[in-house]
Fold this sequence. Notes:
2 domains
Amino acid sequence: MPLHAALAPNDDQLLEELLSFLTRAPSTLDIVLQRKFGLTHFEYRVLSLLAEAPGRRLRMATITDRTGGSKSRLSHVLSKLERAQWVQRLTVPGCRGVYAFLTQPGYDKVCPAHSWYGHTVRELLLAPMNPSQREDLSALVTSWSSRLDQQAAMTFARD
Length: 159
């Protein structure tokens, strides 16, 4: 009997392969980012988002949304990045929320990682796909994300 009895055998195998990939891909990137640049994948994502943001700053809530991390995780990581003087937390008069600001040392830290990351992701994930496959994958990920958001909203509404 398949582990996931509600699934057809082929779907069960597909699910196992997908879940394995979704675990291995970030883990592999995390290991290499730590060895080469001294950053976890999540730290890299935070610094990268800030590097690309206007004025190199974003609201913490925006970073949480874009990384998929929790508020607690982001707060912990920002504390670590602040100790390294790569990030500062700021309150902006007249604006709600707390902002994270990427310092010049933080920008200098993330730039080499950013170049490596872009090249690596392109080679490992994007190069094997043709434009049509990329469009299909984009539509699929968008659909999955929407369904996850709906499920989360229903779960929070019940609690």
